[in-house]
Amino acid sequence: MDMDKPLSELTRNRLLHAGGEVFAERGFRTATVREICRRAKVNIASVNYHFSSKEELYASVLEYAYQQASSAFPNDPGATGEDTPERRLHNFIRNFLSRLLYEGRPAWYGMLMAREIVEPTGALDRIIERAIRPLHESLAGIVRDIVGEQTSGAKITRCVLSILGQCLFYRHARPVIARLHPSIHYEDKDIERTAAHIAEFTLAALRHLSKQGRKR
Amino acid sequence: MDMDKPLSELTRNRLLHAGGEVFAERGFRTATVREICRRAKVNIASVNYHFSSKEELYASVLEYAYQQASSAFPNDPGATGEDTPERRLHNFIRNFLSRLLYEGRPAWYGMLMAREIVEPTGALDRIIERAIRPLHESLAGIVRDIVGEQTSGAKITRCVLSILGQCLFYRHARPVIARLHPSIHYEDKDIERTAAHIAEFTLAALRHLSKQGRKR
Amino acid sequence: MDMDKPLSELTRNRLLHAGGEVFAERGFRTATVREICRRAKVNIASVNYHFSSKEELYASVLEYAYQQASSAFPNDPGATGEDTPERRLHNFIRNFLSRLLYEGRPAWYGMLMAREIVEPTGALDRIIERAIRPLHESLAGIVRDIVGEQTSGAKITRCVLSILGQCLFYRHARPVIARLHPSIHYEDKDIERTAAHIAEFTLAALRHLSKQGRKR
Amino acid sequence: MDMDKPLSELTRNRLLHAGGEVFAERGFRTATVREICRRAKVNIASVNYHFSSKEELYASVLEYAYQQASSAFPNDPGATGEDTPERRLHNFIRNFLSRLLYEGRPAWYGMLMAREIVEPTGALDRIIERAIRPLHESLAGIVRDIVGEQTSGAKITRCVLSILGQCLFYRHARPVIARLHPSIHYEDKDIERTAAHIAEFTLAALRHLSKQGRKR
DNA sequence: TATGAATGAGGGTTCATTCAT
DNA sequence: CATGAATGAACCCTCATTCAT
Questions:
Q1: Cβ of residue D7 lies below 7 Å from strand F
Q2: What is the 3-state secondary structure (H, E, C) of A153-216?
Q3: Residue D73: pLDDT above 70?
Q4: pLDDT at D183
Q5: Whether D and C touch (3+ CB pairs < 8 Å), yes or no
Q6: What CATH number does residue C94 fall under?
Q7: pLDDT in tens, D131-143
Q8: Which chains does B contact via 3+ CB–CB distances below 8 A?
Q9: Which domain holds residue A109?
Q10: Which pLDDT does position C114 carry in this prediction?
Q11: What is the pLDDT of residue B76?
Q12: Structural domain includes residue C176
């Protein structure tokens, strides 16, 4: 049958996938268009034909990765439903870790995000507005529900950073963790376990702050 | 006693400093030997003459940076003295953050370490054994002193990762934090404030674990 | 009688016009097929479909430009009518300058000719026989009528070159003239003024030669 | 003996000569760095090492050509000595033609100038100030000495353009002249003959203007 | 011991052209 | 007839490294 999928879509998609892999492995500058095209099995001029430049390809890969990750996992992790704030926090952490560490397709979303955060390119601003700021705000809402309204915005921000820092560390420091603590793996159930720890660690801290706040 | 080698030593040192700056700013692959030599005001062939290759220069820079940082800050942060474990934890966090974020000379130690953690080169293994493993173990000792001996090693490791993750996030995600939370700065007193938050956040969590442990 | 070919004719014509513009602006090698097709608003494959190659398009553009210019201006400038030779010379110069410098549609005939003269392509020979040789001969006839039959053909040729050189300089050196003498413009009345000068300058020279010839 | 001529000078000079040839033959855009390096028998990276870009090489070639031509022929053609204005005009024309058409080394000065005039690059402004404006002014002085002070500056400018146009035509239209008038050559004595014609043609015209001016 | 010129591999990009649709 | 995606050669330039001095 072969629905009327245009031929170009195929090449474009191949480039997006190959680009995602190579950019994730090597970073923007170190990645080469030639390697991407080799892996995508397309002509080297295709990048400029479909994306007009390496930089644009990179931006498109980030966009594509974001969409893929968004559709693979619930759209606004932890913010849905009428669960207790504690459960929403746990859900958020599990979901965020899954996005970062999940090894399925596209395996490189987390790595791309991590690279972009540490070594930003011109595409960072778009990423921040599209993906990161909503994440921060969503998490801040959950934290506020736990610690109570009397806690200052600055304090809540610090807590958000503490939570994200704990999660992202498993992505950023993965090579180091692999060497120092080889017993920590990244399968689904390992991610579950990691999420459980971070949720417990964080909840204890937030409850402490909540009590402090109420005392004042 | 070979007093007459200051000139070549000088060139070496200039290359180490310039290399530290440029590698920290641009990363290993993106940094260019020309730029390093330009900034060091030495001949372009000096890198290969003194270090035989760009890669060896990079390894030497990491080693040099580690030594400089070790002499600038207490050698084993938080492990010294006979303070209470809680104060030692706070000291450790403050000290680690300072190393990571301090902007004085050499400003690039933290950035180099952060880069190496996220995007390891061949030099990572040496770094791990020289700097990172001792750090992990030192911190694990403090955590154990707080939560008590009955807590499992795996749990302690997780806590160590949670602490380091909170700290490193301020380095890794600095560009993002600067955009989302421009009120967070990196002066000495800001580092102090960040350390205070992380210490409080962590202590609350650890005390919770400690109580849980005792219940069991 | 084949009334139904307007569409392909339209594409051809659009390519001829766009090609004329772009070739005139950029020259044969520097002009790109993409730019021409973009400006003609036709598919990029059209050039090879209608003209089989960029080179053939260029030759067709030259041919087309010649025809357009021939129909826009009297066919054999200065040779018609039974005017005095002096008036015919003035007419010739004005007409030739108009062809070269006229900015209306197609504005690019003069530029194409000028480019082809300075930097000939494979199409030059055709141009010479179709356009340039008749021009030279026509002008030589006028000159001969002024200086008299006793003047040698070689001398007449030199005079023809002197006249054409004066005219073409305004085309060839236009960028330089614009910088050195910004008061010289290229509107209709400016062309008239330029033609008047060249005609006066030339007539004085030719009359001198004429007198010299008669003395001998 | 081999005086201490640096080795680099050799490569630089080779590139200047090869660049002059290729740029003259093909024009700036069409000329390739590869071809230039091939002809100069140097590595392809040498252009960027010695001149940092193709564009800079081109500018250097123009500069070099100008200096070579200046030293090969009297510096300010026609302006020297206390000759009569008529002889100075003849000298100027002969000298200018020689620069343009001389086939010795570097044969390409005239072609480069001609190309730059017709199809200016970014280097045109420098050329104008260094070479073309002085030429115009020098020639304008001679013309003024012949036609008298009462003639307007605009008229003198027109005469200068008429003279330069006659001369440059032999360069610009050389391919066409070669086809239409194969009896015209470019040897030294032919240049002499061409100069004689242009000088005679021009002098007749200028004397006419001079008389007109005096009548008024 | 130190220099700066020279090297060649490989970088991203652009081009006229071709081909399946 | 017409399209737009695909091609591969060639473009200029940058790089870490080497070599003669």
A1: yes
A2: HHHHHHHHHHHHHHHHHHHHCHHHHHHHCCCCCCCHHHHHHHHHHHHHHHHHHHHHHHHHHHHC
A3: no
A4: 95
A5: yes
A6: 1.10.357.10
A7: 899 999 999 999 9
A8: A
A9: 63-215
A10: 81
A11: 52
A12: yes
